[in-house]
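Note to self: keep these together.
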Amino acid sequence: MIPTMSIPLFKTTIKNNWLLLLIFFGVLTMYMTIMISMYN
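Structure:
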């Protein structure tokens, strides 16, 4: 299960790891696009 996080801690984590999150979401978006195009 996902542990509940406080908002300030969450914002600090995003500030420290924004590049990592950007890469993660970029790969996730690319993967979803490939999956959708394969099914169509």
